[in-house]
Write a structure and sequence with these properties.
Elements (H helix, E strand, L loop, with lengths): L29 E5 L3 H6 L10 E5 L4 E3 L3 E4 L6 E2 L2 E7 L15 E9 L1 E2 H9 L5 H4 L5 E3 L3 E2 L9 E6 L2 E7 L7 H8 L10 E3 L14 E6 L5 E8 L1
Parallel strand pairs: 1-13, 3-9, 4-15
Antiparallel strand pairs: 1-2, 5-8, 6-7, 6-13, 7-9, 7-10, 11-12, 11-14, 14-15
Length: about 230
């Protein structure tokens, strides 16, 4: 039997704005690097694995464009912010060396990895996957993408304020695994493709949010992002 049309429509990921372009960046997958800042790992009672980075994923449909409001998610009483540099992949990448990894980069953006921390802690205690804590609706916020030629990650400041108070602050050169190292390592296990995003980890200072909180995240040289936490879903 030949299938000609879908039974129903399903949500699709939004197009991410690109500076200076009318086209939007379509999203394929979202990868996230865990514990990529030593100070953040320490504040949660974890140690950094310096042998190899590790990852978790988020649904592409969980991505939201900055500038609006996102609902406080269900099932949690400890909803946390994590400000991050995001890599946008623009070329196929498989088994690339770190020296060649930057050829796969389309550009960079500022992002937020939203986390149900109490659920994450519960899963850790039971040695179970973190999916319920990390992969949910509106769990990834992103700003406009700046093309690779207009931004090079180095020692730029990364920060997040909540209601005008500084919560998170660090520098990109404090990442345990650099951008080319992350891409090279991840490409050993996946055929990375245009449209993939990689959230690269967060500095220390993560904390709880409440409905009504206003967040402003920034990486020097990239478009800042803002989002407001709405009422519980």
């Amino acid at each position: 039997m030949s299938l000609t049309r879908p039974l129903f429509s399903v949500p699709t990921a939004p197009l991410v704005p690109i500076h200076g372009r009318q086209e939007g960046f379509p999203i394929h997958r979202i990868f996230c690097v865990g514990r990529n800042y030593a100070a953040h790992a320490a504040e949660l009672g974890n140690t950094v694995d310096r042998v190899a980075p590790f990852y978790f994923t988020k649904p592409a449909t969980g991505l939201v464009i900055e500038g609006g409001a996102i609902a406080y998610p269900p099932g949690t009483e400890d909803y946390h912010h994590e400000i991050e540099l995001v890599i946008a992949i623009g070329a196929p990448a498989f088994r690339l060396s770190a020296d060649d990894a930057m050829e796969a980069v389309f550009g960079y953006a500022v992002g937020l990895d939203m986390t149900r921390r109490d659920l994450q802690n519960a899963m850790k205690e039971k040695q179970r996957p973190w999916d319920i804590a990390k992969a949910f609706e509106d769990s990834a916020v992103i700003g406009a993408i700046t093309a690779d030629g207009d931004f090079e990650p180095n020692s730029q400041r990364i920060s997040l304020t909540v209601n005008d108070g500084l919560r998170q602050e660090g520098h990109l050169n404090e990442m345990v695994w650099s951008v080319p190292e992350i891409i090279s390592h991840l490409s050993r296990y996946y055929h990375l493709t245009p449209g993939d995003l990689i959230f690269t980890g967060t500095p220390s200072g993560v904390g709880a949010l409440q409905p009504g909180d206003r967040l402003l995240g920034a990486v020097e040289g990239l478009s800042p992002i803002s989002v407001t936490i709405g009422p519980a879903a």
